[in-house]
Design goal:
The complex is a heterodimer of chains A (261) and B (308). Chain A is 44% helix and 18% strand. Chain A is built from eleven helices and eight strands. The relative contact order of chain B is 0.10. Classes of the chains: A alpha/beta (261), B alpha+beta (308).
Chain lengths: 261, 308
């Protein structure tokens, strides 16, 4: 998936089977954590139909991806500084019309990513929930894919389904997993192991090559998260000492280390 | 809008007012004994029926019905209750029961009109309007419940030939026979609709994928097996249908239009492959089998991490 071009950012798609598992929370705070570690990060709200990154970041953008798509504004005008020291490109509510992945939308999205790519170290694509063609296409643009899941059964099933689709339709052989709202330490490891075993049995035999699920971290269920969300602040800004905030920092460190390895 | 062949029926739809106040002709068409006009008022904009008064009993007997939101129509023309009653009679429905002008009578009239406007006049099936409503509801329901649902779109093969060779009356007969066959081969909970000329659709809620092909095949065969007799002493007409089907995308935030498009694509495939065939979309739907789901939550499957 990776191209050997030096002046190109590493693109990470943050996705989840099910909505409401903290995908946007993870994308925004992970971006802030990476920025803290010295990375130039852009978060692109790729949930074209129903974006809420602006809500999480408490931003009220006047110029959005929609304006870039329609040619009313330049890409530079639409890239905004976010509170956590990173940049964002927000979709805006006008994007509902792009909730279907037509060839035009594909082309536009690809063009935007090509243009921002040389200017950042990392681009995080905050995708929509579910396995729509929009989400699949967005993920296909990324070097790496991070699945956010909670230990809850529906979330796990949807995460499993997402991984399965990515492996069978996009040839992904490596998928990263972040377990959010872990109820006890070590739950992330158990969840990963269970998913990996079921994947090995039911999906692995249909693929050439093995499919590897890597746990990049678990973020504990933490009341501080809810509080930060209600205050419409980044957890890393509002309560950097919270357990969940530290866990996100660990994930960022691990991602950087893994890329350098 | 489909399914309103009679000019009077079209006119009857237009005057259902969306706003403003108007006088209603308050007569019993059968007896012809004229009564003074009553009053029905609608909330401008929302179309909600606010008030409904009998001319001689000014006590309020509404509101009792809410119409879906529609843009206001300042030029709404008067609703003639007489015409409504005529329409019901023409469609073979009984006149509403109860004392004319009473709340029960009006409610009965409205119920009958609602029923009339949601059905296809030729076949009695759900018309396109009610199909679209039901489809939108089903998309929502599937997204929440995760229950599989199947949409079938069906098209009578070479229908033009039927019309050309046997006449339009025979064509109508064929459509009615196909409608009856469709109704006959699905569950009561399934919605069978005529969505266009010779095009039908069936929404099957809670239809697991393994059953989809069976049901669709049963529908196809049911139509194939019953030649239509056009008129007394007419020759039997062999009728077949092509069927395309797609399951509601359980994981996908989808739209009714997209669902129909996916089913339509399968219908085109069925037509291209020679007609009188069923083609169902496969793949994206059965992402997670029951077995896999069980394995995901089977603690004896190995919930401990050994290799990490």
């Amino acid at each position: 998936m990776t191209e050997a071009s030096p002046r190109r950012s590493r693109i990470l798609a943050v996705t989840s089977g099910k909505g409401g598992v903290g995908k946007t929370f993870v994308a925004a705070n992970l971006a802030a954590a990476l920025a803290r570690l010295g990375e130039r990060v852009l978060v692109l709200d790729a949930d074209l139909g129903l974006a809420n990154l602006d809500v999480v970041l408490n931003l009220f953008p006047k110029i959005t991806l929609h304006d870039v798509f329609t040619g009313r504004h330049s890409l530079d005008e639409a890239i905004l500084p976010a509170p956590g020291g990173f940049s964002v490109l927000l979709a805006g509510s006008g994007m509902v019309e792009y909730s279907r992945m037509t060839p035009e939308v594909r082309e536009q999205l690809q063009k935007v990513i090509d243009e921002v790519s040389p200017r950042f170290d990392r681009v995080l694509l905050d995708t929509g929930a579910g396995i729509s063609d929009v989400v699949l296409y967005t993920v296909s643009l990324a070097d790496d894919v991070l699945i956010v899941a909670t230990p809850e059964p529906t979330s796990l099933t949807d995460a499993y389904a997402t991984i399965k689709v990515l492996a069978t339709t996009q040839g992904r052989r490596e998928v990263q997993l972040l377990v959010n709202q872990a109820r006890r330490p070590g739950e992330g490891r158990n969840v990963r192991a269970q998913l990996q075993q079921v994947l090995d049995r039911y999906v692995g035999p249909t693929l050439d090559g093995s499919l590897r699920l890597t746990l990049v971290g678990e973020v504990p269920a933490d009341g501080a998260v809810r509080e930060a969300v209600q205050r419409r602040q980044l957890l890393l800004e509002a309560m950097p000492g919270a357990l969940a905030a530290q866990a996100v920092m660990t994930v960022a460190t691990r991602l950087l280390a893994a890329d350098e390895a | 809008m489909v399914g309103m062949p009679v000019g009077a029926a079209r006119r009857a739809h237009r005057p259902i007012p969306r706003s403003g106040q108007f006088a209603a002709s308050w007569r019993r068409s059968t007896a012809g004994n004229g009564r003074p006009a009553g009053l029905i008022s609608f909330q401008p904009g929302s179309g909600r029926l606010l008030d409904c008064r009998h001319p001689r009993h000014s006590d309020r007997i509404g509101p009792f019905v809410q119409r879906p939101h529609a843009p206001s129509r300042p030029d709404a023309s008067p609703l003639h209750l007489e015409q409504a009653l005529q329409l019901l009679a023409q469609s073979g429905r009984p006149a509403p029961g109860g004392e004319p002008g009473s709340a029960a009578w009006l409610q009965g009239l409205i119920d009958a009109l609602v029923d009339l406007s949601s059905r296809d006049a030729l076949t009695g099936l759900a018309n396109r309007r009610s199909f679209e409503l039901a489809l939108a509801r089903e998309v929502d329901r599937v997204a929440r419940s995760g229950e599989p649902a199947l949409l079938l779109v069906l098209d009578v093969d070479h229908f033009k030939r039927v019309n050309d060779n046997h006449g339009h009356a025979a064509g109508d007969e064929v459509l009615r026979a196909v409608a009856a066959a469709l109704l006959d081969s699905v569950r009561p909970m399934d919605l069978v609709a005529r969505v266009g000329g010779e095009e039908f659709a069936i929404i099957l809620p809670n239809c697991p994928e393994p059953f989809g092909a069976t049901v669709a095949e049963r529908v196809r065969r049911r139509v194939e097996r019953a030649p239509v007799m056009a008129g007394p002493g007419g020759t039997p007409i062999e009728v077949t249908i092509s069927i395309g089907g797609a399951f509601a995308p359980q994981w996908v935030r989808s739209t009714p239009a997209l669902w129909v498009e996916r089913a339509d694509q399968q219908l085109y495939r069925a037509k291209a492959k020679g007609r009188n065939l069923v083609q169902l979309e496969t793949g994206a739907v059965s992402l997670v089998s029951t077995e896999e789901r069980q394995a995901l939550f089977d603690t004896t499957f190995g919930f401990e991490d050994h290799d990490d």
